[in-house]
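Q: Could you fold this chain for me?
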Amino acid sequence: MLLMDGAQRPAPGPALDDGSAGARGPQGEFVPDVTGRPVWRLLLRGLGVYLPGWHLPGGALRVAEGPSETGMNGFGPPAFLNGDAGFGLHLPVRRRGLEPDREIYVRGRDNPSFGIVIAGPAAAIGTRIVDAGELLRYARKLTFEELFDTGDADSVPYAVRAAKAVENVVFLDRATGIGLCAEVDQVTGAVTCPVFVQLGDPGERTVRAYGVAAQAVRSHN
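A: Sure. Below is the predicted structure, expressed as structure tokens.
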């Protein structure tokens, strides 16, 4: 499904403290530059669609650079920090041919930017090591497939342009309880995963987000 920016979405569940009153949340320090970015807004939209009624994160808890093996307030394997490229996932398996749910969003008209929310098993991405570049490639592939009409050759140019214009990606694996967000820097073209998401169990119905501060130079698509 393709939606223009500003389309009405299902109302999200009760929000947690948005962290605007200070730099620290109940479990640690928030990353101040995350919540103002398009990928964060896309995350909240995706959570409202695929996890309606869940408590939304008010900010992204800062994760220090370096390996995390034991986890910090829920952060740890399968997530890892990938230097300037942000977060990544180390998955036990990969699977081809899976068809996750997805919704495509468009911002702007003259020079539109596309975002996609994907909900399904992370194994569908097709690689055991999921970094920013791999997630973006998979998102662009799904965007092309979603917009390409096999019965209409004229749909090809639009589908190609849309796929290349995907700049924000949210992947939610509800079964495993994890999520990953990727974005493209419009100035440098750098591709990063600035946010990792942990989904609580259905009884808890909470979502925790973890972030790293923006860097000037990161992995490129």
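A (continued): Confidence is low (pLDDT under 50) at residues 6-27, 67-71, 216-221.
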